[in-house]
Model the fold of this input.
Amino acid sequence: MADQLVFYHNPTSRGRIVHWMLEEVGASYETKIVDLAKREQKSPAYLAVNPMGKIPAIVHGDVVVTEAAAICAYLADAFPRAGLSPPVGDRARGTYYRWLFFAAGSLEPALVDRMVERPPVEREGVLGYGNYENALGALERALAPGPWILGERFSAADVYVGAQVGWGLRTKSLEPRPTFQQYIERCAQRPAHKRANPPA
Ligand SMILES: N[C@@H](CCC(=O)N[C@@H](CS)C(=O)NCC(=O)O)C(=O)O
Done:
């Protein structure tokens, strides 16, 4: 019997990234909604799952995975039939990791800092993303050849990067450059994206 997969989610959160990924891999899963307004994310029961008290998280059999990007990478490997990660030994795995980690470690902080209007720092060299322009330029170069980050091959990196691009465009923390808009339009055509993002 397959291991049970539990998804701790709130539809207003980064859980949306994982929802899309779960639909891409075709996993069966049970969703447990964590009510952020009631601060259920800080309850002892949930802190036992994620001591950060943050959504999303998954429990798959006896393993807990937190951090949306890590969950995407984990699910791609755990459900190889979906073909969403280049196998170990394939050089494309380098490019895949590169943009997945870039999106989590550099792009996301750049977008969040822009959204909350965090004042610029003098020593931008200590910021992982350098500056906003820098991060957007790198993203644009990665996405411009298309259609996906690995060229013709859609991967979990596109789920994570696509979710960041979609969120950035919605919140206006990402400039609406044509490359970003065309990329998110391609993402939105995917049946799994549609299942995870039904029309309001
Ligand atoms: N680095 C984490 C961030 C998770 C995160 O910040 N989640 C927010 C919702 S989008 C949250 O749970 N906020 C509630 C809180 O911090 O109390 C990830 O990528 O999963």
User: Anything to note?
Assistant: Residues 166 and 184 are 6 Å apart (CA to CA).
